[in-house]
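WARN retry 2 of 3 for item q-0093 after timeout on previous attempt; input resubmitted unchanged.
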Amino acid sequence: MPNFIIEVALEGIDKLSPLLERAARLVDSASQTMERSLQGVQRQIDAVAQAADKSFAQVGKNMEQVGKEIEETGRKLRPLGIALTATGAALVAPAVLGTKRYAEFQAQMQAVRAVAQLTDDEFARLAQTAQTLGAETPFTAKEAAEGLTVLARAGFNTEEMLNTIAPLLQLAGAGDISLAESANIAVRSMRGMGIATEEAQRVVDVLAKAANSSTADVGDLGEGFSYVAAVARQAGMSLEETASTLAVLSDGGIVASKAGTGLQAALREMTAPSAQQRKLMQQLGLSFFDAAGNMKPLGDIVQQLNDRLGPMGAKARLGALNILFLDQGARTMSVLMGQGADKVRKMEAALDSANGEALRMQQERLKGLAGSWELFLGELDVALQFIGKLFEPALTLLVKTLERVVSTFNRLPGPVKTVVALFTTLVGALLLAAGGMVLLLGPMGALWASMGVGLTKVGVLIRGLSQLAVTLVTRVIPAIVSTIIAMGPIMWIALAIAAVIALLAFAWIKNLFGIQQKVAAFV
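OK item q-0093 returned
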């Protein structure tokens, strides 16, 4: 039986072979016919491609030219844009900076108003004074306002502040200290010594002269005054005498708070001596007060101490000083004795003629480039504030309007706020996109030119694609068909069996249609 089947199959194959050979000849004939037809089509395609070449080449050239012109325009406009931006920024900057400076100055002046409870007229007078000082001194108007704030907190009224603020700026400039420190020193000195604000200029001149004539600086003297001023006033000492004593003590090595507390202790013992102290004073022939009950000049007291205690031995002299002035006062008077009565007197005499010293020292410090720069900044600050003041009403209105807008937005229902926020964001995104397109003008021109260049190659592309199609139809496909026919029936069967096996293997690996389970169930 199997032999019979094989014989029948072979007989069928023998009969099928002539048919296959005829089919192959038909395929060859059809291929040749199709090739001749497609050659005509190819000629028509070539004609179309040539026309496309001309048309697209011209369009491409036009686009390329336009793109280059756009790119060139963007390149030429870039310096202009930069120049316009820089010029605009330079012109707008004074307004922006001036508004900021004026707002800061106004805020500081409002602090003065709040502390001193100023009327509108008083506020205007003080503000004008601060701006004038800002233009005429190395300090800004805002810094002058800060000095006014210190004075207001010290309880000064408007007239007292107007009398004091200019001398304070001189003291700060002469002593190279801040306005706040200058104000605190002047206030402590004037209040402690009982000096009216009309004499503020005298106070700062004496302090500046004392600092310039000794190793003490303005800060040291101010700290010393804060400890001794009240007691010195009660003892009848003048501003000049107190300042000169502190300056001499600084030259002797006792400065700032130690000088103030030491002098305070000595004065206290002299004005209210104990019985032991009075007895020793009588024995030594010392007298610190005159017949009218006024304390003698400190230079005369130092002279007495040197005359009476100088001949003593060191131990006896120190013992007598400790009895007369106790520990702190004894060290202070010992230093003054060492410096000598003449120096005390000369220092006081120098301070008696200190008129204008603070201004002179400030002007000396402002000589040269650094000082000129400080004055320029002060003038510039006033100019910027003037510009800022011009825009203040409009900006104030704008800020208040924005505040109302934000307040209204905050009171809106949640869904409405969401819509408003999304719309605002969308508009902002569109504006950003528009700005980006303007900035990309040059690059877009270059891209347009590149597209023009690409269009000039369209005809070449069409011809290439048509030639590929003709080759596929007239060469590749017939060759594949001929090869299949030439293989014969036996190879067809073998290929079919191989294909079935491959499909079964793929189905088994992927378990298509549940083949693994079905085979397992069958087995």
